[in-house]
Amino acid sequence: MPADRLLSTLLRSLQTYTDQQDTPRILGTASSLLTTLGNPHNLSLLTSHLLTAPALWDRPEGVRTPLRLLSVFHTAVTAVINHQNDLRWDKAPQVLPGQTPVGGGLPLDEWVRAVVAGADERSQRWKHLITLGGLLIAIGSLEEQGMELYWASGIKKRVEVALVRATNLALVEVRERSEVDGLGGQTIVLVLNHAFGCISDAEKALLDYDLLLPVLIGTAYFSNEGFQSAYFMGGLNLDIKRTGAKLDWDASSTSFRQVEAILARPLVSSMGPLSRIIAHAVENVRDPWVIQAMMDDLASFARALTTQWRQINLSEVDPAEEDIFLEEAALHKTVPLLWTLLKAALFATTITLQGVLVRTLGDSTLAGDAVAPVIASQTLQTLRHLYFITSRLGPASFSQHTFVYLTAIDILSAYPMHADKFLKAIAPPQLGQIPRHPLDRILDLYFLNTAEHFSLVLSTAANEDLLVASAVPYLAAGANHNMLPIFEAAHSVMLAVLSAPQSAEITAKHLPFYIDALFSVFPHNLSPRQFRLAFKTLMRVTAPPSAISASHPDLSATLMELVYHRALSAPTQPLPPDEMTLALQGSDAPPPALSEQAVLALTLLDALPFLTISLLEEWMPLCAELLSQIDDAAMREAVKARYWEVLVSGEMDPERSGLAVAWWGTRGGRDMVLLGREMEQQEYMMSGALPVEHTPRESKL
């Protein structure tokens, strides 16, 4: 069929929508015509009808409709450019008589002008982005594939300028027509998500980010093409069935199919690039108050996500016990797909928050005393609501989260009153108790991990009433392997509070209890490394010139005595390796197996640099004696090496080092450490005496 007749047939098909229409066939025909029509007016006419056709736009399938049209223009311009490039290199096939050349024989510049001319006033401005975006994406894609398109650089530049200008006009239009959350705003986001990398930095700077940012956030988080305000989890519980003690979520259920459909959405499946565009928009917004409004939106989304998660039965299963309480299909198919969707929301939010904090650090308005602590608090609140996802990955599993988390803490630490208010807002509702719901324990873990960083800026009362009170229930929870992270976090909080200079009074009050808890959990629930670190911290806290050393001068000696006497009767069999030891087993210098007695000896050696001169003089020989009582040769050598390291590595100040050198060289320290066990086995006798003979000498008489 001649191209003109085919065009007439296609235009008639585009005028009305029918349930039986074959949309892919219509779009395929349109793409073919775009590469064969030789009349610029016909090209403009076809483009205009594609952007206004009732057959396509009366009942659009969300952003899939503009995405299909985007591919039409992308395919057409790709074919035209490839043909033009072949002509330049004499690779194009010979055109047969009666055959229409690709592009209708028009030069590329004229062909592009004709197509763009079809994006006229008869269609909404946001639809113009489909045409311009398809052209620009195709040119950029061919350049990425290595095609030399220097001859088309002028065309690409003009399309870039037109796309940016059309975007700004479309943003104004959708705002005036209240279509920000509708298909207009979603199409703007869709086109920019695909074309943003093809736009030069100079043109990106001309975008109206003040209008663009709300459209991006609304589309990504609250529209039916994004995360739907987190309400997609609302119907999950209807399909989660309890069979005995296990939960099952059928792969054929409506809710699971909805999760699959959300993940298949064009914008959700490309949420990574979209979140980077949002972060770029945040960094380039002219009005900083737009960022504050966006932070409120992110906080409400994260809060809704946590609320929805709590309401489904899956939240009642501890992550470490999923293989016990989930059926096989739920464990390996349905639930992992849900976590894939939730992780997409987490990653997108984290990237966006990274842009917020980068902007805050360099913006005088956002960095002001009235705004900075609010943004930092909102950031930490948002991360808290998403922590049930983060905790499954590990908070340090990706660098963006670490940057956002620590930067927000640094900012908030500069404002003690705001920090106190924030911690009171996220503190466990019932201090002194371990909650039964796994989600509440996860939130407690976030509180402990976060509160640890604020112990230096909080008041003594806040440290005791909030931090200590929330940590105490978990100090002895190490026996439950599922609660090991929160058990370790509780010990970290206690050490942080006891180390704070303003906490001398509560240190004296709570130290005996904490020491008792420390000894009760070692070595079964506390690794040797953790025990040594905890005791070393306590010794540093109680050593001069701390305030508690003045009010309780005997505390350091008491702590040393406790460890020493426990070491005398401690078991000598090797302890099972912890995670750190297992990780280093394959290294060049794997750590030796240590017994509880050897670990306690190392703990005493770690504390020597913090003792007063008189105590150091007393404890160096005692540590040497304890060293000689270790039966295992490998363990004894490891302790000897640590003893030598403490003496010569610079851990001691000059005064203590001088005393240590004198003890080592002239007071028998060297022999006690290196030859202590052999010296105990030697028999002492008076000078000039004969050795005792064990067999009687034979009489010569």
TrEMBL record:
Q: Which Pfam families match?
A: Pex8
Q: Which InterPro entries match?
A: PEX8-like
Q: Which PANTHER family match?
A: MICROBODY (PEROXISOME) BIOGENESIS PROTEIN PEROXIN 8 (EUROFUNG)
The protein depicted here goes by the name Peroxin 8-like protein
- Which source organism does the UniProt entry give? Paraphaeosphaeria minitans
